[in-house]
Amino acid sequence: MDSLTKKPRLATVWLGGCSGCHMSFLDLDERLFELHRRAEICASPFTDYKDFPEVDITLVEGAVTTAEQLEEIRHVRRRTKILVSFGDCAVTGNVTAMRNFFSVDDVLDRAYRETATQIVGIPSGNPAVPRLLDRVRPVHEVVKVDYFLQGCAPSAEEIYRLLMDLLDGRTPALAGRKFGS
Amino acid sequence: MSVKTLTIDGKMVTGMAGETIFNAAWEAGIRIPRLCHVGGVSDVGACRLCLVEIEGQKKLLAACLTPVEEGMVVHTNTERLRAHRRLILELLFAERNHVCSVCVMNGQCELQDLAAEAGLDHVRLRYQFPKLGVDTSHERFGLDHNRCVLCTRCIRVCDEVEGAHTWDVSGRGARSVIIADMGEPWGQSESCTSCGKCVQVCPTGALFSKGRGVGEMRKDRRFLKYIVTAREKHQWIR
Amino acid sequence: MTVEELFELHSEEQARLRRLENRIYCCTAAGCVSCGAEGLRSAIAAAIKAEGLEGRVEVCGSGCLGLCSKGPLVRSAADGALYGELPPEEGALLVRPNPIDRQRLAAKRLDTNAPFFARQLKIVLANSGQVDPERLADYIAAGGYQALAKAVTEMTPQEVIEEIKRSGLRGRGGAGYPTGLKWELVARQPSPVKYVVCNADEGDPGAFMDRSVLEGDPHRVLEGMAIAGYAVGAQQGYIYVRGEYGLAIQRLQTAIKQAEREKLLGNRVFETGFQFRVDLRIGAGAFVCGEETALIASIEGKRGQPRQRPPYPPESGLWEKPTLINNVETFANVPPIITEGGDWFASIGTETSKGTKVFALAGKIAHTGLIEVPMGTTLRTIVFEIGGGVPGGKFKAAQTGGPSGGCIPEQFLDVPVDYESLTNIGSMMGSGGLIVMDESSDMVDVARFFMEFCMDESCGKCIPCRAGTVQMHDILSRLTRGEGTAEDIRLLEELGALLRETSLCGLGQTAPNPVMSTLRYFRHEYEAKLASGGRQ
Lengths: 181, 238, 536
Fold this sequence. Notes:
Largest sheet of chain B: 5 strands, mixed
Number of helices of chain B: 6
CATH class of chain A: Alpha Beta
Strand order of the largest sheet of chain B: 2-1-5-3-4
Order of helices and strands of chain B: EEHEEEHHEEHEEHEH
Strand content of chain B: 15-25%
CATH class of the largest domain in chain B: Alpha Beta
Radius of gyration of chain B: 19 Å
Distance between the termini of chain A: 33 Å
Order of helices and strands of chain A: EHHEEEHEHHEEH
Strand order of the largest sheet of chain A: 2-1-3-5-7
Structural class of chain B: alpha+beta
Strand content of chain A: 15-25%
CATH architecture of chain A: 3-Layer(aba) Sandwich
Structural class of chain A: alpha/beta
Shape of chain A: globular
CATH superfamily of chain A: NADH:ubiquinone oxidoreductase-like, 20kDa subunit
Helix content of chain B: 10-25%
Helix content of chain A: 25-40%
Number of helices of chain A: 6
CATH topology of the largest domain in chain B: Alpha-Beta Plaits
Low-confidence stretches of chain B: none
Oligomer: heterotrimer
Shape of chain B: globular
């Protein structure tokens, strides 16, 4: 709960995903006003923050693919009451995890050597470029997840219903949802 | 043929002697989950999703292989069975590479439907990410091993209905794969008649028609009932 | 051969053996062959020739002499002495030993009054080491085929079944189904065509009971099968033996040819109306083919995969005909039951488990080898008296039943070994493999090893076994690497319950047993391996 506004605090995080889930979130359109009325939106991929704030609810888009994301999601988990895996990449690894069929070296080779046209070579020693994990993992493999919202991407309606359920203190009704849909 | 009366999930149901619990239940509107069963070909009891509890029986039995008996009391949807089914589905999703969002069957897939029905919202087991191939050598169809659940419907429909016996399983355990003939690329199979029956019965996107995009594949199983009715009853009715 | 001729041959051969000054038995079971038994045997044969003792002293091969860890083993019939670890040049001394030779040999002589020998009771292995497995006359001299003669000439099939029922014999393949009941089920079927199948697809790691019986006394198994064929009304038998058992296959082929030549198998057994043929079917090494429905599929030439039971093979088995499937050791028990009577057999063992059980001792135990003890013998007697204890270490657990069984910790060492008591403590009799582990064994790694075995051997037909063994193995590997979590242990238990309750056949149903039993008795070892940081 926010000490100033007395509203529940909400955040969204973007790990290894295409941002489609966030696009779907933006499709809430005018319902964003309703959301704003009900919750304090304190962090998102568009927010400039030094340190992830303490929040009540965090939606996590994307799978865990880099060492930096692994640190980040652990930090987010510590500061979040209810953590939601938001969309298939967070829930299953989905397309992001398709690189798991190959070794990290092969993936880097493909991206930075074989198919590069301008700057050819694998970036190394640059701390701004995070190290890839050996394998992409769904969020619940690395931290405890409270709810799972499937879909690639989940529709705005489903996102809205989930958030309203959580804000109203109800257990979200997620049954019957499909992977991939 | 004599008629047997039994109870399934508290409902009085009748079935003919020799009929399976699965059929009797479905005819009575009780839907038992299944993956390897498809009406019109023989049953193998491999997917274990249709296991049911029968009072007085210690073992769980596959409904698709167990004949009805007079006075039987069957439970198809207990908490224990639901938990087993969920875990079996988790095993399937973790076993191969089911990336629903980029699959031709997305939205029409039986595996997806079963998971939704079971309320499966995530897989607790580690995804195995096996390296598996896609056989697109056939001019009209494709076989994507990543999406195969080894239900063997394709093998049985090809053998029992088409009579070609193009498909079989090679290898064992987790290394099992569906093969055409003696392991040739499908397009080079001499026995395949290109009838497409295997594609139509495949529950997932493992067997698909070429030229379909994500979510565009539709499968038509009515042909099987038509053929089986024609063979067994000599009635050519759709 | 008529019954009279059988008894004639029996007396003749016995008289011949009595006339010999000595007969030297070289163990030619696979264990001793692999440590030089053939060289030893030829050295003895050469010495006989050199000494000009042909016709007075004889050397022959024999079945397993038991104490495999001391191979190659040799038994000298003249004085009943047993020698171990004998090099060929010392073996040659046995032929005509002078006092100095005797001294030298005495160092290699094994004490047959030691508990390893004295605490055993041999029924199945009665002839093992006493007869040359490649000579029919040897088997006949030892009383062989008299049970079959008695059955087909003096008893009705129903009387044979009654005798087996009275004996209380239960299946030695592991599950312990009452043999007489199974025979009766097959006998009751009206079908004119029935089959008898001998399951010799022994596949548990560390188990070599059936192999030793087949290598050491093949005719006994054929005789047991023929009696079964007579009792249930079958004319054809198959022995499904795994391809790795080259020596057993070769000895069986020899035995079948000998029995057919003497009309002990074939069209008119003992010149009665009873006919019975036996053929071999060689397995290609899939563990699952030891499961009876997969074994049937394999004999039929199909992919070796199990199917749901019921229908059970006695109703619908090989080519959908009523089929009796018993294990090698079960058939080997049949001839003495027929000759000595069911009551005699039932007087041995415990209330629910009659007779003896053959165990293959392996692992951290002083006397690796093959033993036969009455049912109800305690594990302590087996491991510490007969087996000689754990060399240089402390007993931690014993694994019975191989990958389908469980581990037995120290507190149960005094439990009598029979079907029920082993099941009660979370293990199973299994086919007779007994692997002893000392304190250096990591129980999580032991569970991982057996799970890897099941994962590799799963046929892949049903999902719980095919994919579940992979996941269980994955979790166990993570645990052994120190990367597991408490959640992983919960999942392991959940998967274990799934496999047990939903797998199609025994392989998958019992695959979680080593995990479940180590979790039950050595849970602290799992917990000690948990990663400190929770989810990794």
